[in-house]
Amino acid sequence: MSATPADASQGGSIDHVLTEDRLFPPSAEFTKNAVISTQDQYEQLYAAARDTPDDFWRDQANEHLHWFEPFSEVCQWEAPDAKWFVGGKTNACYNCVDAHVEAGRGDKTAIIWEGEPGDKRTLSYRELQTEVAKCAEAYQQLGVGLGDVVSIYMPMTPELAIAMLACARIGAIHSVIFAGFSAESIADRNNDASAKLMITSDGLNRRGKVLPLKQTVDEALDKSTTVEKCLVLRRTGGDDTPMTEGRDVWWHDVVDTQPGVLPATPLESETPLFILYTSGSTGKPKGILHTTAGYNLWARRTFEWVFDHRDDDIYWCTADCGWITGHSYIVYGPMTAGATCLMYEGAPNHPAEDRFWDLVEKYKVTILYTAPTAVRAFIKWGDEHVDKHDLSSLRLLGSVGEGINPEAWMWYHEKIGGGKCPIVDTWWQTETGGIMMSPLPGITPTKPGSCTKPLPGVIPKIVDEIGNEVDSEHGGKLCISQPWPGMLRGIWGDPKRFVDQYFSDVPGQYLTGDNARRDSDGYYWIMGRIDDVINVSGHRLSTIEVESALVSHPDVCEAAVVGRPDDLKGQAIAAFVTTTNREVNDEFLKELKQHVRKQIGALAQPDDIRFTSALPKTRSGKIMRRLLRDVAAGRELAGDTSTLEDLASIASLQEKD
Ligand code: WTA
């Protein structure tokens, strides 16, 4: 095993992640104090979870969750339906908040928050308990109870976490919608989930500007048939927030005025905890459903294993609560573990490109969990922003959202981690509830670009087109062959899609949608999606979703959307469109981009739009996406194009390169 740290070169293109063979073992010093500190310990945990899962998870659940009533059965599994900890009663909010107060740790800081303008707030677990209880009391007053869906569209403020936890407290189901989505997207999600209550704020601070969230929500509520009330947090101030009488209420009027004493309701283990919409291979986002006990346990244990959590850590996950990473690793995982979490509201480059490093230094962050797309942006912005700050408090770094390319990995390791912090490259999905594969920082020698090995309870299989296990070095579809506590329990309102999407290719096994290979050391390398999902700055988007948005414009006839490599975002969105007779010019181009923003949100705005007289199709009428991907990437056209119906269209697309 040799470690040969190379210079992190700056700029240039992303090097290929699948050819990396450098190995970086954890330092002896890190290993000495690590929660899991020997290979044997991992092997034992892994073998126990694989071979005697009921015993393993029974012990884990009894030790790491609070039970109002004990469960009688560990797991009922009849693919695709899993029920964990059957017969037991627990409460995720209790586990996150009250349990620490009960155990005499109420004074420990739960949340350290900083707003983008620089305002600050800290909440101890005891203070959090009161705030969450007040919010839950307000929900009840607004007619929300067990099984009702609450849509949350908010900035990254403590109230966002409070609103989530307050749902869990009374068995309401939260559906957090990232505050970059459009009114259309909010309305679609509200209607699909039959949301009863919507929570938002007057505005959101982003790069020094105020975005009027409530206005967007008002537009969404015009089309949301089930929403009865809207709870509004005053965040940015100003007198111009539109409030609809009888429907809209202010947070400071209905939450802050409550007594804050409502206890957590004991809930059946499989009580729905939240829905989170994510993109799949069709145009319609799907509401991934997670339930209470299994998810809560998985979030907690994976957090403790992967982040080597200790009581004095200051942990910072830079994700937004609008994504699964925020759910599992800002709220449920770290809080059940009683961690102190930093939460930041704004952009990483406001007021300057050193904002993250300023926060790390100021709050003495010890564990930092961020995304490769952010790391690549930091590299581009230049080392001088990092050099201004003392980052010596850091002891562990994490990465999530997409594979981290070796160049970014090396820079993260050297520049941010000072060459001493292990990097945990965590592979998982909205559907998996928590991390599935990751180095364990005290014991796993890391290879840049590999998420290394599965966590206890995760049994991966690599299969071919027809579901047979294959020579894993070559690679194939990645499946998980045993249920795990954090797995999704369904797609909201669409049981057929749930089976078709995840449990049909290889009956009885969960199909991840990713390709992967396993090398001779047993390390896994994620090779990208097998479906039409693209990964833009770590955000999942369906190409078909963007196509549908484009064709909803009256002047667009047909659209094909593909991902193309991008140094910063990982993948950028390239669209090819055929139009009506309208003249093609910059104004039309702008209008189309704006149209997609309005339909889905800014994150889905195409980077390139190319106009063409026809899209290349096979004789059977299928759009040749592979070919368009090559055109979008500026590559020589690969493969056989003899089945093309319209070769002229390819020629004209290429001319525009
Ligand atoms: C990709 C985010 C490689 C993958 C937690 C997966 C990754 C999708 C990694 C899920 C990683 C996430 N290495 N690929 N470390 N992490 N992915 O649902 O394609 O937003 O299927 O969950 O992101 O995205 P999602």
UniProtKB/TrEMBL annotation:
<dbReference type="GO" id="GO:0016208">
    <property type="term" value="F:AMP binding"/>
</dbReference>
<feature type="binding site">
    <location>
        <position position="537"/>
    </location>
    <ligand>
        <name>CoA</name>
    </ligand>
</feature>
<keyword id="KW-0067">ATP-binding</keyword>
<feature type="binding site">
    <location>
        <position position="597"/>
    </location>
    <ligand>
        <name>CoA</name>
    </ligand>
</feature>
<protein>
    <recommendedName>
        <fullName>Acetyl-coenzyme A synthetase</fullName>
        <ecNumber>6.2.1.1</ecNumber>
    </recommendedName>
</protein>
<feature type="domain" description="AMP-dependent synthetase/ligase">
    <location>
        <begin position="103"/>
        <end position="492"/>
    </location>
</feature>
<dbReference type="InterPro" id="IPR042099">
    <property type="entry name" value="ANL_N_sf"/>
</dbReference>
<dbReference type="InterPro" id="IPR011904">
    <property type="entry name" value="Ac_CoA_lig"/>
</dbReference>
<dbReference type="GO" id="GO:0019427">
    <property type="term" value="P:acetyl-CoA biosynthetic process from acetate"/>
</dbReference>
<dbReference type="Pfam" id="PF00501">
    <property type="entry name" value="AMP-binding"/>
</dbReference>
<feature type="binding site">
    <location>
        <position position="556"/>
    </location>
    <ligand>
        <name>Mg(2+)</name>
    </ligand>
</feature>
<dbReference type="GO" id="GO:0003987">
    <property type="term" value="F:acetate-CoA ligase activity"/>
</dbReference>
<dbReference type="Pfam" id="PF13193">
    <property type="entry name" value="AMP-binding_C"/>
</dbReference>
<comment type="function">
    <text>Catalyzes the conversion of acetate into acetyl-CoA (AcCoA), an essential intermediate at the junction of anabolic and catabolic pathways. AcsA undergoes a two-step reaction. In the first half reaction, AcsA combines acetate with ATP to form acetyl-adenylate (AcAMP) intermediate. In the second half reaction, it can then transfer the acetyl group from AcAMP to the sulfhydryl group of CoA, forming the product AcCoA.</text>
</comment>
<dbReference type="InterPro" id="IPR032387">
    <property type="entry name" value="ACAS_N"/>
</dbReference>
<feature type="modified residue" description="N6-acetyllysine">
    <location>
        <position position="622"/>
    </location>
</feature>
<keyword id="KW-0547">Nucleotide-binding</keyword>
<feature type="domain" description="AMP-binding enzyme C-terminal">
    <location>
        <begin position="545"/>
        <end position="622"/>
    </location>
</feature>
<keyword id="KW-0436">Ligase</keyword>
<feature type="binding site">
    <location>
        <position position="325"/>
    </location>
    <ligand>
        <name>CoA</name>
    </ligand>
</feature>
<dbReference type="InterPro" id="IPR020845">
    <property type="entry name" value="AMP-binding_CS"/>
</dbReference>
<dbReference type="GO" id="GO:0046872">
    <property type="term" value="F:metal ion binding"/>
</dbReference>
<keyword id="KW-0479">Metal-binding</keyword>
<keyword id="KW-0007">Acetylation</keyword>
<dbReference type="GO" id="GO:0005524">
    <property type="term" value="F:ATP binding"/>
</dbReference>
<keyword id="KW-0460">Magnesium</keyword>
<feature type="binding site">
    <location>
        <begin position="425"/>
        <end position="430"/>
    </location>
    <ligand>
        <name>ATP</name>
    </ligand>
</feature>
<feature type="binding site">
    <location>
        <begin position="206"/>
        <end position="209"/>
    </location>
    <ligand>
        <name>CoA</name>
    </ligand>
</feature>
<comment type="similarity">
    <text>Belongs to the ATP-dependent AMP-binding enzyme family.</text>
</comment>
<feature type="binding site">
    <location>
        <position position="551"/>
    </location>
    <ligand>
        <name>Mg(2+)</name>
    </ligand>
</feature>
<feature type="binding site">
    <location>
        <position position="553"/>
    </location>
    <ligand>
        <name>Mg(2+)</name>
    </ligand>
</feature>
<feature type="domain" description="Acetyl-coenzyme A synthetase N-terminal">
    <location>
        <begin position="42"/>
        <end position="96"/>
    </location>
</feature>
<feature type="binding site">
    <location>
        <position position="529"/>
    </location>
    <ligand>
        <name>ATP</name>
    </ligand>
</feature>
<dbReference type="Pfam" id="PF16177">
    <property type="entry name" value="ACAS_N"/>
</dbReference>
<dbReference type="InterPro" id="IPR045851">
    <property type="entry name" value="AMP-bd_C_sf"/>
</dbReference>
<dbReference type="InterPro" id="IPR025110">
    <property type="entry name" value="AMP-bd_C"/>
</dbReference>
<feature type="binding site">
    <location>
        <position position="540"/>
    </location>
    <ligand>
        <name>ATP</name>
    </ligand>
</feature>
<dbReference type="GO" id="GO:0005829">
    <property type="term" value="C:cytosol"/>
</dbReference>
<feature type="binding site">
    <location>
        <position position="349"/>
    </location>
    <ligand>
        <name>CoA</name>
    </ligand>
</feature>
<feature type="binding site">
    <location>
        <position position="514"/>
    </location>
    <ligand>
        <name>ATP</name>
    </ligand>
</feature>
<feature type="binding site">
    <location>
        <begin position="401"/>
        <end position="403"/>
    </location>
    <ligand>
        <name>ATP</name>
    </ligand>
</feature>
<dbReference type="InterPro" id="IPR000873">
    <property type="entry name" value="AMP-dep_synth/lig_dom"/>
</dbReference>
